[in-house]
Amino acid sequence: MNKISVVGLGPGHPDYILPKAVSIIAQSDIIIAGKRNLESIDITDKSVFIVGNNLSQMVDFIKENRNSKRVCIVVSGDTGFYSMLRYLKKHFDSEELEVITGISSMQYMFARIGQSWEDAYLGSLHGRENEFVEKVKEYGKVGLLTDNKWTPDRIASELLRNGIDNKIMYVGENLSYENEKVTKGSIKDFVEKREYHICVVVISNE
Fold it and tell me: What is the pTM of this model?
């Protein structure tokens, strides 16, 4: 029985996909990924399953095809950091999975702002509530994956509402892509509402 490959794509641009991931993708018959991730890889002559709000159908599809074909699931960033891996392990044993790491957008963001992150609190606001205000009070550095609800302006407003205005805030948008934008400022600098896509926020003492 073929192992199911779970591959971390990295932050998005092909330059940041690890060679091992490229090799696994090339050897696979079926690629399972979100639409944006598919734009970064070569899917010539591959069967493709596009992931959306169809995770149960995805699991059924994998089970139907894994015996006869090599299946590769491509996830954003790193496989072990807020990816689909946790969901997959509810349906497949660890021995059934071949997991290939990737560069997470959080790693990339800390590198872009020239800071280490071993002493930071790292969290995600993707579809979940997070007590990030308390974490900002507790830690000198906090890294957050945002979503369309918890945008940088809302995060900044919530911090100010709780009396936190002495930190530096970094916002990374479209990380690794040609239209990448990394902005640094005070908490107050980010209160003004504007349109943000999914991005990474770092709140730091420096």
Answer: 0.89
